[in-house]
Known about the structure:
Elements: H1 3-30, H2 35-44, H3 48-75, H4 82-98, H5 105-113, H6 120-150, H7 157-171, H8 173-191, H9 194-225, H10 229-256, H11 263-277, H12 288-300, H13 305-332, H14 340-343
Helix pairs in contact: 2-13, 3-4, 3-6, 3-10, 3-13, 4-5, 4-13, 5-6, 6-10, 6-11, 10-11, 11-12, 12-13
Amino acid sequence: MSKTKKSKSIFLFGRIAVVIGGIIWAILWLSKGQRWDNLTQAFLQINIWVFALALGIFLVGQIIVAFRWWLLLRSQSIIIPFWSAVRLLFLGLFYNNFMPSSVGGDLLRAWYVTKHTNKRFEAALCVFVDRIIGLFGTLIIAAFFYLLFLRGETLPISAQKNAGFLNSVAEHKIVLIWLFGFIVIILCGLLLYRKSRAILKKICLNVINQALRTVEKLKKTAFLYYKSPLTLLIAFGLTIFLQLMAITGFWFVGRDLGITVSIQYYYVFFTLSWTLGAVPVSIGGAVIMEGILVFLFSTFAGVGQEAALALALCQRIVWMLASLPGAVIHLLGAHLPKDFFIDSENSIE
């Protein structure tokens, strides 16, 4: 096995281990006291039609995501049918949420869109530009609603206790300084040995090379899109609209669960969980997003942990149900152009 395949296998195993470990921890946590009963009662409060509404809103949102990506493709004179973009989007969504693979949904979408056009590099790059716009829009929503509505609000008792804990950590900053100094000493010690220096040098070179490649991609991206500012503006506007729409759907579910906090909390907490969940340390952000949502709602909004967990699980269920069309698309081969088998030997430029 080559080093590249070995590292990918280790990375994949680590992501799966994170999900399994998180599930085991959640089961153990729920087994204490009345938490299972409380979680069950929270789910029983959900109106099936409200849940269906949230699912429908999310599905419409994914079609809007596909439209955003389709516009970005057209700005590069990459003309593919709109419904082909929709099918590829749902295929990527299915891989993100169901398939424990080292190949993520975005990479899969980037690969298959190159089968629809001769502009293979530009088509693949559009996928990652679309992802960057989505993440940037997510951060804008979180910052906007926090600064405009939540900053300076009186926190519930649970949040005040957490703030007290954080203040106590700040008071003991000398410990952090000593810890930092210890790490520096260890690093200096490693530099004294030839083998450890070689390892550190290799790590630094890899980081630098990756950074240079990223900068080069960003330069190419800027060059490709600076002539289409209107398309980027529309794409950004669509991002804000579809994310607000999806979060509003989960707000309806939250009200059914007995969560009565302001919708502004949803706009901040959900977008933060999506951003942090995009870090590839688990499969489709599973466990990570749920844990972040439970922590934020229970700590900073005073919501019961079982109700917050039920809300987080409802989001996961909605995502998984909305991903199922991607499985059908893959089985039917609907993500491929009609002449795929004629042109399938061509590789990405």
